[in-house]
UniProtKB/TrEMBL annotation:
One MF annotation (Gene Ontology) recorded for this entry: sequence-specific DNA binding
Keywords: DNA-binding, Plasmid, Transcription, Transcription regulation
Protein name, as recorded: Transcriptional regulator, AraC family
Pfam families: HTH_18
Naturally occurring in which organism (per UniProt): Acaryochloris marina (strain MBIC 11017)
Domain HTH araC/xylS-type: 232-330
Length: 331
């Protein structure tokens, strides 16, 4: 099942999805919610305005077939998103940067991108439970009661608009956060008491997250803003040289870093190695080629730097859980 988003603004996401799955959307000043029609499975989505500049989106569903939400035209957003996965699996792909994020039970991610062009893929046949906190970046300092300068340098870099690449940082949900998440999903109140209760749990979750990000984590970064700029430059080189990428030493030399700083930078900025980043970009480019035209699997493999279609197919299945042929059939 595919849902093609047409709304230009990310804030209209819930309404847009509800329209396309033909669900009855209920709306008030503070709440949007809908239930999936029985032909799709069971479950619901709720989006609540917790306080000015802060939204809370709750998703609980068990679908009969995978759900893919596509934003092919680009959706503008000024929201810093913090997503927690309690169960199931969801994969997000940011097409322009070739970055992917996979969330599973007790994993989460902090992310920001001024424009979203990509897709979200929800697994089927198992319960998916997600809690997402959205914070308007213009209200960030007042909401967090926390200087933006204390956030990780790479995130500051992205929030200031100095990079076209999205910022994504993965984390493991702590035991204390898991308790707060369950309390959010099973809130016993309605009306104003419910909003106040959920706001208190959201603040608790933000406190746990900030504890892990700063001040020690942020201040311990060994990357300067100039280093981060060079890491992004290195990522651009890899994206444009998929067939014949430079070696790690060559890449470091091209962007003016030593190999140690390059390795450290990819870990800190992209939460992976330079090789892992290249592999992810190759797979995302391959997926786009399979969706957009009729190139054969061997041609796609060659275009993303694989000399063997067999090796490419094995790598593709490791990334997406299916073969290139079956992936194309379901696009």
């Amino acid at each position: 099942m595919q849902v093609h988003l047409t709304a230009p603004n990310f804030c209209d996401l819930v309404q847009n999805v509800a329209q396309q799955v033909k669900a009855d959307l209920q709306e008030t000043e503070l709440l949007q919610q809908f239930q999936f029609p029985v032909e799709f499975g069971q479950g619901w989505v709720q989006r609540l305005n917790i306080r000015p500049g802060v939204t809370l989106t709750l998703e609980r569903m068990t679908l009969f077939e995978p759900l893919t939400i596509l934003a092919s035209q680009g959706m503008s957003t000024s929201t810093l998103d913090i997503c927690f996965c309690l169960s199931g699996q969801v994969q997000g792909s940011h097409w322009d940067s070739h970055q992917t994020t996979t969330l599973s039970a007790n994993r989460g991610c902090l992310g920001f991108s001024p424009e979203i062009r990509g897709c979200l893929e929800y697994a089927s046949a198992e319960p998916v439970q997600l809690v997402n906190i959205g914070i308007d970046i213009h209200e960030l300092a007042s909401v967090l009661h926390h200087p933006v300068e204390m956030l990780p340098l790479a995130l500051q870099h992205s929030l200031l608009g100095n990079s076209q690449c999205p910022y994504i940082q993965h984390f493991t949900t702590t035991t204390a956060s898991q308790v707060a998440l369950q309390q959010i999903l099973n809130c016993p109140y309605n009306g104003l008491p419910r909003r106040l209760y959920l706001e208190s749990r959201v603040i608790e979750l933000l406190a746990h997250l900030l504890q892990s990000l700063s001040p020690s984590t942020a201040s311990s970064s060994k990357l300067s803003p100039d280093d981060i700029e060079r890491i992004y430059a290195a990522s651009e080189i890899l994206k444009h040289q998929l067939e014949h990428p430079p070696s790690l030493l060559q890449l470091a030399h091209q962007v003016g870093l030593n190999d140690y700083k390059l390795k450290l930078g990819f870990r800190e900025v992209f939460d992976t190695t330079a090789f892992g980043y290249l592999w992810s970009v190759r797979m995302q480019e391959a997926a786009l080629l399979l969706k957009r035209n009729r190139m054969g699997v061997t041609e796609v493999a060659l275009s993303v730097g694989y000399s063997s279609a067999t090796s490419f197919s094995a790598a593709f299945k490791r990334k997406f859980g299916t073969s290139p042929q079956k992936y194309r059939q379901h696009c």
